[in-house]
Amino acid sequence: MRILIRGGRVIDPAAGLDDLLDLFIEDGKIVRIDKNTGGGRREAGGADTKEPRTGKEAKASRNAESALGVDRVMDATGLVICPGLIDMHVHLRQPGREDKETIASGTMAAARGGFTAVCCMPNTDPVNDTRSVAKFILDTAKREGAVQVYPVGAITKGLKGEELAEIGELFEAGCVAISDDGRPVMNAELMRRAMEYATMFDLPTIQHSEDLHLSGKGVVHEGLVSTELGLRGIPSVSEAVLVARDLLLAESTGARLHIAHVSAAESVRLIREAKARGVRVSCEVTPHHLTLTEDAVRDFDANAKMNPPLRSEADRQALIEGLQDGTIDVIATDHAPHTVQEKEREFDLAPNGVIGLETALAVILTTLVAPGILSLPQAIAKLTSEPARILKLSKERIAEGADADLTIFDLHREWIVDPTTFASKSRNTPFAGRRLTGATVATLVGGKVVWEA
Amino acid sequence: MGLARKDLLGMQELTSDEIRLILDTAESMKEVARRDIKKVPTLRGKTVINLFYEPSTRTRTSFEIAGKWLSADVINISTSASSVTKGESLKDTGLTLQAMYPDIVVIRHPAPGAAVFLATRLAASIINAGDGAHQHPSQALLDLFTIREKIGRLEGMKVAIVGDIAHSRVARSNIQGMQRMGMEVRVAGPRTMLPRFIERLGVEVFTNLERAVAEVDVIMMLRLQTERQQAGLFPSLREYSRLFGLTAERLKAAKPDVLIMHPGPINRGIEIAPDVADGPYSLILNQVENGLAVRMALLYLCAGGGQTSA
Ligand SMILES: [Zn+2]
Ligand SMILES: [Zn+2]
Known about the structure:
- The structure holds two protein chains of two kinds.
- By secondary structure, chain A is α/β, with parallel strands linked by helices.
- Chain A has 15 helices and 18 strands.
- Chain A has helices spanning 55-68, 103-112, 131-144, 167-173, 188-198, 212-215, 224-229, 236-253, 265-277, 287-291, 313-324, 340-343, 360-369, 376-383, 385-391; strands at residues 2-12, 17-26, 29-35, 72-75, 80-83, 85-90, 115-120, 148-153, 177-179, 205-207, 220-221, 233-234, 257-259, 281-285, 330-331, 406-416, 435-445, 448-452.
- The site of one zinc ion (ZN) has 6 residues of chain A, from loops.
C-alpha cells in the first residue's frame, strides 16, 4: 500500500518541523517528504478541500500519482499532520472488566481521538504484575487493537503495596514503565526500593500521588464547593505531600519518577523546584483538570467525579502555568471507563474516573491552543515527543524512514460532544454536550489508515 | 401564591418570599394542629411516601403525622444504610416508586445529592428530609419558624451555631436560610469541625464559645456525633464538653434573654447542660411542635396547595 498525503501542514515539534509538505508512505514507512508545491490553493487554514480542480490540473496530478504508483491520495489541504499522538495514561479494563472497555474498543476510541499509541495501566483483573498478563495484553493488542499498546507493569504484586512485582520480567515482557496507578505506594521504604530497582532497567516509576490518610473518604476537592454541598473533601495536600516525599526519594536514588495526573498548585510548585535542582522527574496533566474546576460537581453529576478531584480555579491556573513553563511535560487522559449503571448513582457511591480518548485533542485545541495559551507545536509536543521521550519510544517523528504513525486533524471543524457515538464502551465524560473546535480527520498506524472521519 | 418549584431540595434555592410563604402557611397549620379533631381533608387522595435510608424516628414521624392530619395516604419505606451500598440502586428504587404514582416522596439518605438525584428522575415532588451533610431544609424552616414566632421577626437577628459545622446539614441549611432572611450568622466549634472555606459563606467564625455567644439573640447547639472522636476530630468527650458544652456558667457571657435551640436528640451533659436544655429560654420543645406545622405546610404547598386563586 502506497499512500500520498498531500498539502497538509506538517508539524513535528521534535524535529522543529512546521511546513506545507507532501508525505509518501510505503510499506508502513514515510519514504519521502516533499515540499508541497500546490501553490496558493493549498495554503493551510481555511482552504476549501472540496474546491473542484480544473480538468487540466486534475489530469496532471493523476499522472504524477500514477507515475509514482500511489494506491491512495489523501488530500490534507487545510489540515494539520503530526506524529501520532501518544496517551501515556489510559485504563483499557481488559482483562477483567470487558463490560467497561476492551483492548479493541479502547484502542478504537484512541484511533478516533487521534492517538496512535496508548499506555495501559496495570489495575486490571488480574493485575498486570506478571509476564503472562503483559503478554496477554500485547498479544490481544496485536490481534484486535487499532493502535499500539504499551503496557505499564505493576510496582507491587497485586497492587497491594506490600511486595515488589517482578519488575525485571515485566520489563522483558515489554512494559515501558511501572505504576500502581489507582492507588499510591504508601510505604516510603517500598517506594524507595521500587525506584532503586527500576533504575536497573531505566524504567520510569509512575506514581499516583495521594496520601490515603489525608484523602480519607473524600469524594471531591476540599474547597468551597465541598463546604457548600457537604461532600467530603480531598485536600490538595493529600497529593502534594506524596509528591514531596517522592521527589526526595527520586533525588536520593537518582531514579526516574513520573507523577501521574497532577492536579494541585502545590504539586506544580514542588515539581518546578525539583526540576530546577536536577531531580529526574516528569509529570502529566489531564485535559479535564486543565479545563474544569470543582464547580463541575455542583449538580452532583458523577461524570465529574474523579481522583484526583477537579480542583479550584487557582489550581487550574497553576496547571496551565506549569504546562507553559515546561514544569508539566505531558498531557494524558487517564481514560477511565465505567458503565452507565455504575456512574448513575449517589455521588458518594459512584466510581472515580472519566473517559477522555475521544475528546482530548479537541478539548486541548479549543481551550489551550485557540486562546493562545499554548502554541500548536507546543500542544503537539505534550502529546507526542514528550511522552515518547519519557517512555523512550523514539519512533514518534516525521522523517524519511520513520514509521508512518500519523494523526491528521482539522483545526477548525466544530462538533458537539455526544458520547453515545463514541467507540469507547463507556460514556462517562464530563464534556457531554460541549461544543468543541478541532477534530481528528484520520489516524494512521504503521502506514495503515486505522480510522477516518 | 404557591411554590414555584416541584421539589424542596435545599434552602439555597428558596427565595425570601417563598420562605415567608412557607412560614405563613405553617402558622395556619399550627392552628389546625391545636384543634381537638386535627384531621382536615386537604390532601385527600394524595399519596406521600416516606423513603428513609437512615433511621430518624423524629423526622419520619413528624412527616408521617403531618401527612395523616392532612388526610394523605402515607406509606413508610425504611431501608438501612448498609443496603444502600449493596442492594437495589437508588435509581431503580426511584423507578419502582414512580410506578406507584406518588404525589410526594420525602427522602432521607446518607449521601449528599440523593434528593437531587431522585428529583431529576421522578415526576413526584421530592422533599429532602436530610441528605448526608448537605441539606435538611424542613429543619431549617422549622428553626426559622420558631425564632420568628418567639421574637416576631427574623431580619437583623444574630445567631451563633455551635458544634460540628463540617458534618452538619442542619448548619448548612440554617446558614443559607437565615442569611436569606436577613439574619447574621456566626459559627463556632473545634477548628477540626469547621470546614476550611466556611468563612466564604459569609459567616463569622469562632473557636471560642464565650466569644461566639456574646451579643447573639439565638444560640443553636448542634448534636455531637461521638464517633468523630475516633476520626481524630476531638480528643475526648470531656475536653469537648469543657470547651464547647453550653452550661449556665458559659451563658453568662451571652445576653440574659438569649434563646437556646437544638435540633435534637440531645446528648445531655455533652453539648448542652440539662439545666440549660430545660431552662426558661430553651425553645427545644417548641422546635419539635413547630416541626409538625412546618411539614404540614410543606406537604400542602408541594402538593400544589396555594397554586389556585383560593
Ligand atoms: Zn491515578
Ligand atoms: Zn489512572
